[in-house]
Every structure is written in structure tokens, then in C-alpha cells.
Amino acid sequence: MKKSIDYENSFPATLWKHERAFLSARRAAARAAGIAARPAEVNDDVPPADTTGVALSGGGIRSATFGLGVLQALAKHKLLGKVDYLSTVSGGGYLGSFLGALFARPGIRDVRDVEAVLNPDGVRPSPTTSSAARDFGLPDVLRWLRENGRYLSPNGSGDLLVGGAIMLRNWLAIHVVLVTLTLAFFLLLQVARAAWAMAGGETYFTPLAVPPPQTLWWSPFVAFSLVPLLLVAVPSGWAYWLARATRTRGLGNPLVGLAVTALLGLVMTMYAGPARTVGVTLLVEIGLTVLTWHLAWRRARGVEQGGGSDVAGTVDAGFVAAEERNVLSHWLLLGLLFAGAFLVVGLVDSVGQSLYMAMRGSTLVQTLGGVMAALAGAASVGRRIAVALGRGVTGALRPKLPTSILAGSAAIVIVGLLLLTVDVVSHAVAWQFRPPEVAPRLSWITAPAVLELPRTERDLWLLGVWLLAAVVFSLVFGRTWSFLNNSSLHSMYSARLTRAYLGASNPLRASGEGQSVTRVRPGDNFGAHEYWAPPAPARPGSKPADKPKAPVDKGAPIHLINVTVNETVDGRSQIQQQDRKGIGLAVGPCAFSIGIRHHAVFSNHADLAGGLVPVVEPAHPDQYRVFDSIGRGAWVDREPLTVGQWVGISGAAFSTGLGARTSLGLSLLCGFANVRLGYWWESGVSPAGRARRSPARRALEWLFPLQTFLLKEFISQFPGTAYTRWYLSDGGHFENMGGYELIRRRLPRMLIVDAEADPEYTFEGLANLVRKARLDFGADIAFLTAAELDSAVAASHRNLFGPLEELRRGRWRDEPVDDPLTRARRLTIDRPLDQTRYSRVHAALARVTWPDDPDRVGWLLYLKPTLTGDEHTDVLEYHRRHTAFPQETTADQFFDEAQWESYRMLGFEIADAVLADGATPATGPGPSLSPRARIFG
């Protein structure tokens, strides 16, 4: 009995219809190659019961290299042709794109050629790989991957210098853009002060009268913080207590207190001196409070009427009062924020002008040069901290303080230095780079003298010219959209990944200058329409042989690349996101899938015309739909990205947006240090009617769009899909196993290769997948206990499998207390874990069920880099010298030959043993299968 696919739009029928065509073509090619004895035609309304998916986790070069060993084991056992889906994240995407590019090469005829290139022998350093690759006109791909394990610096110090030069150039560029706009702001303050002074016939700098000893030359802008405090914050806070005052009688009515205060203020105005000032202030505040109260009531009343609760002239007084208090609370916050902003500006300006005055005896250029050198040094340190904290540090290096505090403290230092430097420059411009002629003395023994600059209108005009120049340059910079992504490290990172992994099978890399990974060669990269080319038409009279075969027509798996759309502020509700702070985005051959149920579906990437899910429902026309505004035609306005760019984005582990790990301090630190691997993607989806923005914000975004988006990065204000540009980063920032898309499709057979950094074996990434699978798709992933494994796994493979606890490494011992469930003695591991010791097993097995579909049961085979002590000599020797192996930090992206080969060989050994054929009866009752038979049939 066929079951109709629906899954509440999580995997819509329209998407499955297009993917089914790819799956049928892939299986037909595998069947023709004699690899997979499966039906070539797929007609089911759901993925058939023998559909197999492989997920490659994040983890940078470690994940790619360990996964390569797993792929080689699959090739050895002739199982590549049985892989229907390949879902990758971050480092797993390096390897996934390498495999897809290998299938796409014209010299490759089918999956048998790919298995030959991957060297099925795997364990012998024989020339098999080289000769097999050359037979298909390809370079020695495995040697290429091994030699480019240092893909960020393949040629050593020379590449490091090039990379350093690029990083320095980009760091200086973004600071020029931001400093120019910041300088314009401070120059505007200087012009305002000068114009005010000249209009009033007073001097330029009039310090606040502070009795000695004075520690700072105070800026008058400090006093400006009282303006929003008195005009907005105090009236809003006072008016809050007047809500529903008309329903309270007697002395408890807050209006009585308001009247008494007004009377007191009126009496005080009859006196002279400070008493009159206080009285006038009280009367003004009372007037503002009453006005604020009235405006809040009118707004609350309008909301009530707009909600349709005004029936026959009645008023829901309770709702109006509640909404009124809500509005007044928001206005109070707004007033306090503006007061705080003015106070910060005043304090920065105070310190800045004091520093400039203190520098009058030295050369300004030398002093500013020293400050810039300090900034560069702080940025270098900040870059190291950002990279370390972006993925977390472990073991002895674990920080004692929370990450947010460490990152925030470092960010405050850098931001403070930058603002002070710009403010000092603005004062230097105001003084025409001359030392102050009359200034308060640093000893602060006497009261500050009055300064006399500018003395003429010419001085004011010169100051205005500087301001105009800064504004013009800021406007010009703001329109240079390409700078937004080109100034980050994404271009360098994705380019080197492309050449190292997609270019590994480029025939032009076989000889000559093409053998240098630093040189760009045609054919390294692929457009999405080439990489995910649709299967050849099966119509009568068609001649698919007249054109190069699509990868799927050679038996290539359906590759899904996972990235994260950062969302710290919900575009629909404007609510701060405190948990996920990101949405998963999967790019496949015929869809872009976002979150749980938003899809743009099409037949192929060459013609992005198709259906949108969910569809617009007449009953709910205002419901939020990510892709709704691209219309029913082709999706022509989006920015097309190459496969190399998508893989680079999927691996953007260190950036201002880190998904659930995003914090203000870390984003500031990454931003100012220019540790930015993420990408602002022009999605082509109109933001009309999505993000609610104030007129002031809209004006800033229109005048200075580039600077606005840079600042959004720096202060971690990512609007998700509410704007046209989406900030994309590492897929692991949402889900790092790659299993999310396999669970979405309810695949019955899944292999997950978990090579993320997990030195303490906490299984954080796996737990995140289990949690999201339950919350988003209603799937229950339950790992088998030792007793269940006795029944489910053949005895020939039972020693390789265990509960998750047995994948940890350390000192194992028998627990003296009997297990209350099984009544059998159990093994436990001493804490803390000992990295010098071994794990007991390499793999675990889980049963996946969906409560709404009890007839559908999936199996999940979980592989993790572990050492049990029976590995090859070179692998164990590397572990003795590097005890963190095979869980070394992701920050290490420079693999030497020994490190690369140890991870590859470990991946091959584990997968080769787990996937070996042959099944002896299990020791317990129930059906037993070898892992190979359970996952691959």
C-alpha cells in the first residue's frame, strides 16, 4: 500500500517529484554499471524502503580527510553505487564537492570509474591510484588531496605571507570605511559646537565648570544625556503609574500626587535662584508626563480598535491599560538608550579632547601612528581569540570565564581604542592640527581656562569642508555593494577550497603549472547548473550521448549542501532569538529548503521556475512565507553562486554570525579583527512588508547601506530572511552532522560520519541532531543498548558496536553494582576522560521512528573517529605523539603528511571493518544483520 507523501510540507510532494527523477536516473546508471541490484525506476509516492543516505559532518580538514577514508572503504566494497543521497556540512562539504566534481568530469563514465580512482585497495601505497586516475585523463587525485592538506598555505611561508597581506589589506579597508563614517559623525559634533559658539558670541570650547581637582577636560556633550532623560525617560516612567488612574478613587489615585507636585512646583517658581529652576523643571515634566500619557492612551486605543474589539462603542479598558503600559515601558527604554548613547559620546569626546590636549607637546602623526599600531596588535590578538572561541577550546586551554565575557572584554578594548582615535583626529581637524593655544593644565591645580578656537568664520568653513569630504566618501563607500563580501575572507577561503578539492580531479591539474594549487585553472569550479545538471531526457528520439553526461546519469548521489541563515532578530515578530539564532538552508539539485517547511522547488538550476511551498492560501494571505515574494515565474533576481562558493559558505566556521553561539562580544571581536568568513547573499526575495523598520533606520539603510550591513554583522543583528540579503555561514552553526535533511526525507537507511571536534566525547553535534529531529520533524532517534545490539547486529560485527558511552576513551572497569535494568554487570569509564587511552568500539546503531507513520522504521549507522588499539602501527604511533588525535581542534587547518594519512587511514580502517560482508548469527534472539546489509541491502 502506497502512502502519500505530505509530512506537513517539511518534504512536499512537489519536491519529491523532482528528486524522484534524479533518483531514478542515478539508480539506472548504477544498475547499468552492475553495482546496485535495485529497481531502476522509482514510482513510489515516498522514498522507497531501500533508499540510502550518507551524511558527512563538519570539522574542517579533519572531517574531509577522515571521510575520505570512509569513501574509500565504500569504494572497496562496491557500495558507492548504492548511496542515493549525500548530505554534507562544512568540512564534509569539502569531500562531498570533491566526489561530485569527480563524477562530473568528462573522462568518468560511471560509478565504477570513480571507485577505481578512489583506489579500492586503500591500504597499500601502490601506484594503483595514479594509473587509474591517468586512465581517465585525471591527475593523481589522492596525492593532490594529501599534498594540499595545508590548503590555506600549500607552499608554506610564501602562501602565509600572501594570506597575511590579503588579511591586512581587507582589515585596513573595512576600517577605512567605518572610520570615515565615524569621523563624519565626530566632525558633525565639532561643527555643531563651533556654530553654536559663534552664533552665541562665545568661544569654541567651553568646558563644564567642574571644581578642581579635575580629572578630565569634560565635553559639553556629557550634559546632552539629560535631554532624552528629561524629555522622554522621566515622563514615560511617571506616566506609567497614571494608567487606569480614572478608575481609582481617593488619595490612592496617582492623579492626586500629580496635582500636589504641580502645586509644589508652582509655589517654588515664586522664589528666586535654584528653587525657581526646580519649580519650572517640575512644571515642564508634569506637562510632558500628561502629554505622554495621552499619546500612549491614544495609541493603545488605536491598537484595540484595529484588533476589532470595539463593539457597539464599548471599550475594553483592561486591554487599553495593558497596551498603554506596554507602550510607556518601550518609550522609557528608548529614552534611557538615547541618554546612555549621549553619555557614551560625551565621555568619549571628553577623553578624546583631553588626549589631544595632552599630545600638544608631541607630534600628532607619531602619536596616532602608535595608536594605530596598538589597534593592529589588538586586532591580531582579537583574531586569535575569535578563532579559539568561535568553535570553543577544550582541555587545559578551556577559559575559566564565560566565552561571552572574554570576547566582550576584548571587543570593548578594541572599540574603545578605535573611537578614541577617531575622536582625537576630529579635534585635530578642529584645531587645524595645531596644539591648543590655551588649554587646561594637566596638573588640574587651577580651573580650566577658556579656549579660543575657531576664531574666525574661515576656521568654521574649513571644518565644514572636512565634514563634507567625510560624508561624500561615506556615501560613495556605502554604494559599493561588492565590498561587503570582497572585504571578508570568504573569497580567499572558498577559492583555495575550490582549487584543493573540486580542482583535485581537473585534468588541467595533471601536469605543468596546473600542479600548483595557488594558480587558477579553468575547470576547477562548477556552476550549479553543471554540478546539479538534470538527468538526460528519456523521450523517444532523444540523443543523450550527444552531450556530456550529467553526474546523476553516471550514478552520482544527490548532493545536498547545508548552510545557515543567521537570524538573531525574527523578521516577523522583531523578537530577539535566544536559542537557535539561525535557520538551516539546504541547497540541492531541485530546491532551496529553509527551515522546516519553506521551499523553492524547480526542475533544474538552469531554469529556476517552479512551485513555492507553502502556497499562498486565501484564508491566510498574510502568513509569513520565505519565498512568497519571488512570484510564480523564474527566480531570476537571486545571486547565482558557484559550487565552490556554496562549499566555502558551508565551511564558514569562524565569523560574526555563529548560529546558536552568536553573541554581541564575539561578533564585535570577529568584526573588528575581520574574522569574517560568512557571506551576505542577494536572495532576490523582496523584503516588502516583512521587517518593521523605523523611518530613521530606513533612512540610514538608504544613505549608508554598506556601513549598515557591516554594523549589523558587528553587533550581531541578523534579520534572517526578512531582508533581501541573507547572512549565510557554516551549516554546522545550525546542525553539524548533516543528518537533518536525511531525517526530513524520512530515509529508511542512513550512515552518519561524525568527525566534528569532540575531544571529551560529549556528542554535542549528535545530541543537537536528535533534538532537532524530534522538535522539527517528530522523529525519534533511539540508540540501541548493549542488549539490543546483541539481537540487532550480527556476531561477526558485534565487537565493533556499542552504546554511545563505549565510544568514549579512557580507563574502563567493571561496575561493582549490578545494572538495575539488565541485572548484568556493566562497564563504566573513569572521569575525566583520558586521551592517552582507547575507546571500546567504533560505531553505534540507532532506530528512527515517526509516531505519525508507525509502519516506517529507519536505521541510522553512526561512525565516529575512535581508537581501540588494534589500528595500524603508524596510526597508533601518531596518537602516541599527539594524544588529542583523532579529536584535534578544528582551528588546525594545516595538515602535514603524517596527520593527513593518520586521519585518512583511520577512516578507512573503521569503515572497512564495519562494512565488511559476512554475517554470523547473533548471540541473542531476534533478526540480526551485518551493518552493510542493514544500511545498503
General description of the model:
The chain has 27 helices and 15 strands. The chain is globular and about 105 Å long. Strands 1, 2, 3, 4, 5, 6, 7, 8, 9, 10, 11, 14 and 15 form a 13-stranded mixed β-sheet that branches. A two-stranded antiparallel sheet has the order 12-13. β4 and β5 form a beta hairpin. About 7% of the residues have low confidence. It has 3 domains: 343 residues, no CATH class; 249 residues, no CATH class; 173 residues, no CATH class. The protein is an alpha+beta fold and 937 residues long. The protein is 44% helix and 8% strand.
Q: Alpha-carbon distance between the termini?
A: 21 Å
Question: So what's the overall shape?
Answer: globular
Rg, please?
A: 33 Å
Mean pLDDT: 81
The assigned structural class equals: alpha+beta
Task: Tally the structural domains.
Answer: 3
Strand content: 5-15%
H/I helix tally:
27
List how many beta strands DSSP finds. 15
Q: Low-confidence runs (pLDDT<50, min 5 residues)?
A: 122-128, 201-213, 308-314, 391-401, 438-454, 921-926
Overall helicity? 40-55%
Main sheet? 13 strands, mixed
Characteristics:
937 residues, alpha+beta, 3 domains, 13-stranded mixed beta sheet, two-stranded antiparallel sheet, 27 helices, 15 strands, globular
Write the layout of secondary structure elements.
Elements: H1 13-32, E1 52-56, H2 60-76, E2 85-89, H3 91-104, H4 111-117, H5 128-135, H6 141-147, H7 157-199, H8 226-240, H9 254-268, H10 274-306, H11 317-358, H12 364-391, H13 403-430, H14 457-478, H15 482-486, H16 490-500, H17 528-531, E3 558-566, E4 582-587, E5 591-594, E6 598-601, E7 612-613, H18 643-650, H19 664-672, E8 679-682, H20 695-703, H21 705-714, E9 725-730, H22 740-744, E10 749-753, H23 764-777, E11 780-783, H24 786-792, E12 812-814, E13 827-829, E14 843-849, E15 857-863, H25 873-881, H26 897-914, H27 931-936
Parallel strand pairs: 1-2, 1-10, 2-3, 10-15
Antiparallel strand pairs: 3-4, 3-9, 4-5, 5-6, 6-7, 8-9, 11-14, 12-13, 14-15
